[in-house]
Give the backbone structure.
Amino acid sequence: MPHEYRNDPDAIARLTPEQYRVTQESGTESRFRNEFWKHEEPGIYVDVVSGEPLFASVAKFDSRSGWPSFTAPIESGNVVQNRDASHGMIRIEVRSKHGDSHLGHVFDDGPAEAGGLRYCINSAALRFIGLDDLERQGYAEYRKLFEPHDETTEPDDTRLDDTDFDNTDEGARR
C-alpha cells in the first residue's frame, strides 16, 4: 500500500522553534552545531513534517561543511529543486515534495565518483530512522539500500544544469 505523505498541520504544530524556522521559513541552522552533521548510524532520514523518505546514510559523506551532506536522495521524486536568489547569490534550494519543507541546497561540488552532487541539508528538517527501526516505522522497503549490491554498474551523470530547477518567479523561494 503506497504511503500518503503530506504537509501535516499537526506535525507542523509539534515542531520545535528551530525546526519551524528552518522548514517553514527557509532558515539555515548553525553549522557544526546541529544534530546530524557527524551522525554515522545506518538508517534513513525523512522529512520532519511529512515523513517522506529523503536521504539514506549510505549516501552521506563528510563534506566538512558542518551540515549533513548526501550524494543523492533516496527517491528523487520526493525532493524538489527551486532557484534561490536570496542572500545575493544564485543557488538551488531543495524542498520536500509532499511536506513542502525547506531542506537546504544542492551544489555540484560533491564526490565525482558518486555523481558530483552535494545535498547540503539542515538537520532540523530531518527525522532519523535507524536501520533496526525501518520495519516498525513503516519504511521496510528501504532496508534494501543497506544490502550488498553489484558495484559494477556506473552511476548516472546527474550533474546540475539550468533545466534542473524552476526558473520562474514562483519557483524562487527564500
Notes: The longest strand covers residues 79-84. The two ends are 35 Å apart (CA to CA). Strands lie at 43-47, 53-56, 60-61, 69-70, 79-84, 91-96, 102-107, 118-121, 126-130. The chain has a mean pLDDT of 88.
